[in-house]
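Final report, closing paragraph on structural work. Over the funding period we assembled a curated collection of sequence-structure pairs, and we close with a single example.
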Amino acid sequence: EVQLVESGGVLVQPGGSLRLSCAAAGFRFDDYAMSWVRQAPGKGLEWVSAISWDGQSFYYAESMEGRFTVSRDNARNTLHLQMNSLKPEDTAVYYCTRGITLDSWGNGTQVTVSS
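Its predicted structure, as stored:
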């Protein structure tokens, strides 16, 4: 059974930083690209970032480029998202998803950016 468990979401002030993690289990982690997707209150899903299976290629939504950094540790089956210069509009539930088809999702972790 595929399991994706996100963690690290908290309340942070604008301009602050946060690192999200996703622990993966139940599949061969380094066989898959991985992505982050978020959902802001009252809005639809928004793709955030993706990373290739080997961690060598990265992709970001335009609004996150330069502020967010995706990484992975295949030895520990873990995905990370470093978020800097956070803005109130980054407030959302952040989900870890598997593959380019986003075929499995975690339960999400809440990030709130507010003073």
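The chain is about 0% helix and 50% strand. Residues 34 and 98 are 5 Å apart (CA to CA). We thank the funder for supporting this effort.
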